[in-house]
Specification:
By secondary structure, this protein is an alpha+beta fold. It is 23% helix and 41% strand.
Length: 265
């Protein structure tokens, strides 16, 4: 039997990224993250770490010399003490917030408004946004013998652009599609990745489960850069609604009913 990975929904993670048109100075990042540091103190995040990038310098002369040093680009906030599960990232080039345990869109949006919006209000006084990206990771698993699973009960296999013998042979498969949708201010790039693989059972790691993963990415690319937070909020909501439509287009009626997308066009 196919079931959503998250009981009431199939969503494993949601990530929302904002790409700046010009680099934000590190001093401005520092001054704009006081409220995020307070969230860390409240327990929303456990660890704050530096984000660095390698700066390689080559000196040519009598003695050729290559030097590498790490340039500080910003900060990452982790939800675990080990610093492996990232919840938010703020750098000179972009800002990202991710759900670690997704419940509802309204819950994720509350976190976005609490953590990201105050930051954007400050940095958008000095820069603007050239793109906003929303990514969803959804998964269905087959609770039973993988050889008995029929993937066509979950995804519309005829839309994947794969030959019929790609399915049900005991081998993994992967479909990736991308296209642009016109928008009022630029265009929206849509990527839809669908793949079959085997994953470990949560309670019985030695027991393999057949898995169907759907990765949906919508990136709004602006002709005129955006620096208004209210306009940005409307864009985020638009991407969310369009993302549901993209996911629904790949699913069967039964799969859509499992996760509450039966009324999505």
């Amino acid at each position: 039997m196919w079931v959503p990975a998250g009981n009431a929904h199939a969503i494993e993670q949601v990530t929302l990224a904002f790409v700046f048109s010009e680099k934000v100075p590190l001093k401005m990042l520092d001054a704009s993250l006081e409220h995020v540091d307070e969230e860390r103190d409240k327990g929303t995040y456990s660890v704050k770490g530096d984000v660095t990038a390698a700066n390689i310098q080559v000196k040519v002369g009598a003695e050729n010399e290559v030097r590498s040093q790490n340039d500080k680009m910003g900060y990452a906030y982790f939800v675990d003490q080990d610093g492996t599960v990232e919840g938010a990232r703020f750098t000179k080039e972009l800002a990202v917030i991710s759900s670690v345990s997704y419940g509802t869109w309204s819950g994720f949006k509350e976190e976005y408004e609490r953590v990201m919006v105050p930051f954007l209000k400050k940095v958008l006084l000095a820069t603007s946004l050239r793109a906003v990206k929303l990514e969803y990771s959804d998964r269905f698993v087959f609770d039973g013998d993988p050889s008995a699973a029929d993937v066509s009960q979950i995804v519309e296999t005829s839309k994947l652009g794969l030959p019929d013998n790609a399915f049900g042979q005991g081998f993994p498969w992967h479909s990736r599609r991308g296209w642009f949708v016109p928008a009022d201010n630029g265009a929206i790039l849509v990527n839809l990745d669908i793949a079959e693989s085997q994953v470990a059972h949560r309670d019985e790691p030695q027991k393999p489960l057949l898995s169907i993963h759907l990765g949906t990415m919508l990136e709004a690319r602006f002709d005129a850069h955006v620096d208004d937070v209210q306009e940005l909020n409307n864009i985020v909501e638009q991407l969310h609604n369009q993302s549901k439509g993209v996911t629904r287009s790949a699913l069967t009626v039964d799969a859509a009913n499992m996760i509450g997308l039966e009324d999505v066009a």
